[in-house]
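Notes from the pairing session

We agreed to fold both candidates in a single pass and log them together. This is the raw record for the first candidate, unedited. Please don't reformat it; downstream parsing expects exactly this layout.

Candidate A
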Amino acid sequence: MKGATLVSLKSFIRDEPITVVVPAFNEEKTISSVVRGIFLSVPQARVLVIDDGSTDSTAIEARGAGADVISHPLNKGNGACLKTALRFIHGGFVAVIDADGQHDPMDLPILLNKLDEYDLVVGARTFNSESGSHLRNLGNFLLTGLASFLAERRIADLTSGFRAFKHDIACKFIHVYPNGYSFPSTSTLCFVMSGYNVQFIPVEVKKRPSGTHSKLKPFSDGFRFLMFILRIITLANPNKIFFPVGLVMVLMGIVITVRNLILFEQFSSGAVLFLAGGTNTIFFGLILDQFASLRLRERD
């Protein structure tokens, strides 16, 4: 990995302005080393730290390390930080890296160099480098599998926050991005479903420094996780789910109807329920599919 990084650094000369965005909430212990690592890896980049209502000295530490800082007056969420950054930046290439020190800033050139060919490049975490809990890993695995099924292409890592993209394209979907932690997955699906070129590059993730912990709470966020699955379905490809389910219900209704007519020479309420429910499900999927297309429509 280090050898590849050094090669990338030697050829890393660009005319496009580069901004590295670091969303941060109470990360005073790690933000300084992350910012310095970015400048060491990509000296020509502008480092923009979005202080999301921190109650510690995150903003002070970031400025001391040489970063530009925009502070939210209150905590809004990771996605809100990225939307603030996208509105503040004027064109060029944008990279995003977490403030907790898990991502290696020396991997940034590897992602940025791929923007010659791709519109979005995601640092896909390798399985043996994932430092989260088993429950969180399982959730990421299920979400990634669901997204791959809906998008009809393999998505190596749906929830990785380590990524690089073209600013002008990312801004087209700013009205779709949520304020919370689902920004990475939502933006990935927006790029993929709109036909843009997306690449996943394997990267290793370091363990969290001692004294820091994840802002995610697996148990209390269980309901949010289920709602997010529904969001992925309705955003990406609703008919991939609703049409098969509706079709199965209609077929079951037909089978029950034929059976009852042969055996009892009458209709049953169960058959009517399956037929009506299946038909409604199919049409509901068609309506959601139209809304999904409208939400992903590019804005000038």
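Candidate B (folded immediately after A)
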Amino acid sequence: MTTKPETSTATDYVLQARNVAVYYGGFRAVKDIDLDIPRHQITALIGPSGSGKSTLLRCFNRMNDLVTGSSVVGKITFNGADIYDHAVDPTEVRSRIGMVFQKPNPFPKSIFANVAFGLKINGFQGDLQEGVERSLKAAALWDDVKDRLHDSAQKLSGGQQQRLCIARALAVEPEVILMDEPASALDPISTLKIEELMRDLSANYTIVIVTHNMQQAARVSDRTAFMTMDEDRAGYLVEIGPTQEMFTNPRNERTEAYITGRFG
């Protein structure tokens, strides 16, 4: 695998977080986050359970807005624009920054209808059949389902369902895909297919993945960010860097302790 070079200028970052904190009511779940996400690379968020990885991920497309009592402070920009500005429509943010969840969640509809839904909500005016085929091909699922597009999506295997959810996310033509443990519920063969798909997609999309599987982070990501918890249970970013360096020569002793299994 050839690792993409590190970016060096602000214009190369599609997402940037500055002094971000997330609250659920009075509880501060994440604090002091400064993070840059390079365009067309895979950034992995690793760390122990409860360190705020998924909470931070959901900040990037305002999914935390849907959690009662949650609030985000600080600044997150997408292509330089503040996504939490009052004039910004969260729905528009989510159409440009898609999300794939831990457990495959296909709609109880046909394979075709699942992907067509993504196209329709984006106001797609072209040939629906062509659009569905394009999205399924991008998710490396077309060959598996082209002869049964009108079968229930729930008849697919777990790995196929997850690729279908990725196809549905791709249908709205996002720039960024957020993945929250996308392979944790899958068998090793399906996991490998998802990992190969992520590498292929990173040529055209920016991907941020949360994973507890450090081997997976090492295999698929260009950069890795390590998060842990402080004494107040708030998650924070310890360090971020090129994945190879993070796993072979981490700068922080807490990162090294986690990667080597001494805690976590």
